[in-house]
């Protein structure tokens, strides 16, 4: 099969997903449209060569309901013959878009693809598409009676791996410190493209990073998911998950240009990375957030690589307990884990996060001179994607 390469990867700044947030005034289609414009302009590729535009988006209702990738592409003034589709694998939707694009290219169904993700959580709130108070269904609940919301699952993970409140808060603080250091050093400059908002102002920096965070401040936050029924069933839960050590509700978009290595060569393009391998796997739906652990085993087995070969690893910080549990099962140098911070500091615009993490991972490998990188993220229902890339050049 063909080698698949990433020619370029860009993202918006991350905006707080609430009224008044830096990007809250931008329709999600227009947000993604601006990302497409920057991606095409940066690469200089003829957009008419793109075979398909695959877009991750979780809340596909309201302004995100009508194939947002299609209308973002048209809104950017790009060729009307290029189609688009929307992908929803919960928090891994953007990463799955990358995987589907790579699979299509490797198989010869595509030559050139754009994989992207978008989520405006200020304009289309999380859960907007849920018509039932119980999303699990009678049959699933009968088989797994302990199904709980994600925040409660994060508490169960913390209890299972004995991750206390102090450890979660310390990890959260580290995320903000690393993201702030990256922003101040210019490490994000190569990946962030500006977004023009109402009035012509341009947003160029992440709004979500809190450089003034302290352990004392984090310790004062109240647990966000305490539940008496769950406490009765799980007495070991210590209720340490707070708004401070969980990912932020965020607006954002990201996009990557992928193609066959042979196609890149024929076009005279210099790829930035090669897709080495990917995996998707599910785990215990009651713990829900643990699948990155076995997904990492699987992608490493498929690629024939080992964790010590990974110069940078991105484990999505849905909650601090997720990367900490992953780290307990995959011991490694913590300096290589989320080296520029993660979703606790940068935010988690659901459908866009998979592409945002990949964009940050590529830039980190280039800046540090690393070769291989691993990305994995937990997803509702107990699923996870995992991807290994190799820096080129």
TrEMBL record:
One of its GO terms (molecular function) is acyltransferase activity, transferring groups other than amino-acyl groups. CDD domains: thiolase. Residues 270-391 form the Thiolase C-terminal domain. Keywords: Acyltransferase, Transferase. PROSITE patterns: THIOLASE_2 (PS00737). It comes from the Bacteria. Residues 4-260 form the Thiolase N-terminal domain. The active site is at 91 (acyl-thioester intermediate), 348 (proton acceptor), 378 (proton acceptor). SUPFAM superfamilies: Thiolase-like. The keyword RNA-binding does not apply. The keyword Ubl conjugation does not apply. Belongs to the thiolase-like superfamily. Thiolase family. This is Thiolase family protein. It comes from Actinomadura montaniterrae.
């Amino acid at each position: 099969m063909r080698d698949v390469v990433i020619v370029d990867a860009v993202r918006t700044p991350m905006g707080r997903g609430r009224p008044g947030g830096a990007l809250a005034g931008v329709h999600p289609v227009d947000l993604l449209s601006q990302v497409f414009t920057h991606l095409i302009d940066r690469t200089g590729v003829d957009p008419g060569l793109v075979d398909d535009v695959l877009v991750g988006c979780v809340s596909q209702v309201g302004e995100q309901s009508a194939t947002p990738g299609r209308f973002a592409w048209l809104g950017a003034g790009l060729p009307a013959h290029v189609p688009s589709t929307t992908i929803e694998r919960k928090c891994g939707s953007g990463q799955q878009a990358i995987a589907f694009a790579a699979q299509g290219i490797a198989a010869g169904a595509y030559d050139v693809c754009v994989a992207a993700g978008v989520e405006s959580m200020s304009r289309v709130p999380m859960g907007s598409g849920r018509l039932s108070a119980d999303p699990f269904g009678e049959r699933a609940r009968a088989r797994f009676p302990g199904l709980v919301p994600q925040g409660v699952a994060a508490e169960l993970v913390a209890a299972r791996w004995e991750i206390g409140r102090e450890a979660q808060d310390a990890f959260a603080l580290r995320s903000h410190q690393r993201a702030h250091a990256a922003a101040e050093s210019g490490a994000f400059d190569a990946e962030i493209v500006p977004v023009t908002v109402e009035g012509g102002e341009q947003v160029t920096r992440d709004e979500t990073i809190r450089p003034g965070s302290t352990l004392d401040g984090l310790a004062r936050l109240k647990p966000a998911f305490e539940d008496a029924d769950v406490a009765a069933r799980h007495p070991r839960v210590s209720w340490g998950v707070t708004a401070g050590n969980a990912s932020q509700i965020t607006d954002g978009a990201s996009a990557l240009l992928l193609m066959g290595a042979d196609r890149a060569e024929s076009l005279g393009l210099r790829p930035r990375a090669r897709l080495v391998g990917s995996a998707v796997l599910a785990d215990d739906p009651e713990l829900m957030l643990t699948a990155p652990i076995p997904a990492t085993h699987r992608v490493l087995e498929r690629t024939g690589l080992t964790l010590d070969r990974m110069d940078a690893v991105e484990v999505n910080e849905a909650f601090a307990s997720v990367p900490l549990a992953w780290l307990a099962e995959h011991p490694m140098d913590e300096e290589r884990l989320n080296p520029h911070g993660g979703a606790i500091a940068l935010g988690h615009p659901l459908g866009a996060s998979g592409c945002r993490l990949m964009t940050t991972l590529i830039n980190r490998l280039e800046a540090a001179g690393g070769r291989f990188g691993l990305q994995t993220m937990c997803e509702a229902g107990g699923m996870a994607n995992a991807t290994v890339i190799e820096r080129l050049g």
